[in-house]
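Lecture 7 notes: from sequence to structure.
We start with the chain below.
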Amino acid sequence: MFYGCSSLKELSDISKWNIKNIFFLNNMFYKCSSLISLPDISKWNIEYVLDINYMFYECSSLISLPDISKWNTKNIYKLNSIFENCSLLTFIPNISNWRFNYKININYIFKGCNSLLIIPDISKWNINKIDWPKNISDKKESLLSEDILKSSDLSISSFENNNSIVNSIDNSRNEELDDYYDNFYN
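Predicted structure tokens for the same chain:
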């Protein structure tokens, strides 16, 4: 929608947009590097959205996000790089309660988020539904706090060394969604 609008500093009110039947929000604010803030998109009904890859990618002037913690993420299966290179972002809403019906891919979700003071505790996410993370962040040790690591099986070493979780997961539904996604754009 606003893909590559690098000089866009602010948006009019998009909070009341009806996106109930939208399947893809990927790249929505991709490289909106001058965007300082976003309107309140917390009430968007994303129940049918499948893909939010790169949604806020390289929004390098954003300091915070609207409260997206209550989004219904059950159908999302792609959220790669959703916050990647949001280098001034100091706060991400508590997305720890997001739930997913499908195996998800979270590669690079916090990569380049060098100003984050706190990262949401994603240890509550069902790690059996997480695709093998690649470089989840540049600062794994600082972003994944000791409290998170103590409270779950989610550990830095599981991101770096343990492929067995992912290798044991049935990928058939994701392959079906990938085919749908590919056919939608072709």
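Points to note: Helices lie at 140-143, 146-151, 156-161, 164-167, 172-185. The chain has a mean pLDDT of 76.
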